[in-house]
Amino acid sequence: MAVIHEILERFTNARVNAKEEIDYLKANGRKIVGTYCSFAPREIILAAGAVPIRLTDTTSQYDNEGEKDIPRNMCTIVKSSYGAAVSGKSPYFDKVDIIIGETTCDGKKKMFEYLKNIKNTYVMQVPQKSEGEDEYSLWKNEILRLKELLEKEFHVEITDKKIKEAIVKKNNERRTLKRLYKLWGTKPSELNSKDIHNVLFNFEYRMDSEKALEDIESLIEILEDSNVEAKQNKAPKILLTGCPLGEKFPTIIDLIEEAGGDLVVIETCDWMKGNEELVDESISWLDALTQKYLKVACPTMTPNTYRYENISRYIDEDEIDGVINLDLQACVPYNIESIPLKRFVNEKKDVGYINLETNMTAEEVGQVRTRIEAFVEML
User: Fold this and answer.
1) Which of 70, 82, 93, 267 is the most buried (most CB within 10 A)?
2) Last residue of a domain, which of 229, 246, 280?
3) Are 76 and 328 in contact (CB under 8 A)?
């Protein structure tokens, strides 16, 4: 257990330590690229010799600062992310050399427009469909333009060799994270759900990704060798899907597990959604990256085919009993997709479903607890 504790501590402290580590990297000539979404191709950033850092703020603590330019009835992630940036309270925003944004939801599009006033910001034009010849060509050209932009901004040459090496590196990370994630969902161990959240959520903030992967490999070995007995009672297996929750995840994990549910799948942007698909290493890097990042199961896509395919597969493979869809208030893409998702889960998969629209504030936790308890009891 001492080894587990030491490893988990390194992930717990990752965000705090990242500030000094970024300063060290910049002092040694490395460039820092800020991202807000899974659509930003990390492989191109790495091939440019730069380091990506996620700037999204999910705490809601900077909503007031964000509301100086963004309406109060906007999504809390947009408000708090923007507020953290313009207030100077973000631990990383001032350190990044460029921001890579994307045209997903309307709120984020306007946020990037405003951020251009204070930080070098490039916005990738994401297609509104994940399939189609025109959409494929658009996204392929956007990735190529990003490559050319970073070459110009950082005065580097991004060669095919560097991109292919970055693809291999990121695929290795994805495979390792997926192994840990799958073991968590299927095998009892000394690690609880919040421990796994700690690792997956903070992985990107470990600036030395090689050491972070070594730690995860150690955790995988511990899980594989675990002799913890499975619970005799069959708790309902829960799939959690919906908006990214970030720092609020431990609360929803507690609510589900305290209600008697067995949380085995989490399908959100800040868990495995961006790592679900590997990049095809057998074809040209440009086509491979185009295909991979068009498969991000985001509700801004119309239709959002891959999200339904993923959820259907999870339900079958993990024998899911109930789906909890959690939408943040005013997150229109996820909100509007909740009704057809309910029909799909109930009618096509014959599985229980509940939709929770909440920002998971302290005032809302009691009501959310009651609804989850009733849902799990029903299952």
Assistant:
1) 82
2) 229
3) yes
pLDDT at 232 over 60: no
Alpha-carbon span 143 to 40, nearest angstrom: 9
Q: Residue 184 pLDDT more than 60?
A: yes
Sheet bearing 262-268, strands edge to edge: 262-268, 237-242, 322-327, 352-357
Tokens for 36? 């807000």
How many folded domains does the chain comprise? 3
Q: What is the tens place of the pLDDT at every residue in 26-44?
A: 999 999 999 999 999 999 9
Tell me whether residue 22 is in a domain: no
Q: What is the pLDDT of residue 180?
A: 93
What residue numbers bound the domain in which 237 lies? Answer: 232-379
Please state, as a whole number, how many other Cβ atoms lie within 10 Å of the Cβ of residue 6: 11
Residue 104's SS3 state is: coil
Q: Region of 103 please: left (phi>0), alpha (psi -120 to 50) or beta.
A: beta
Q: How far apart are CA 335 and CA 261, in angstroms?
A: 24
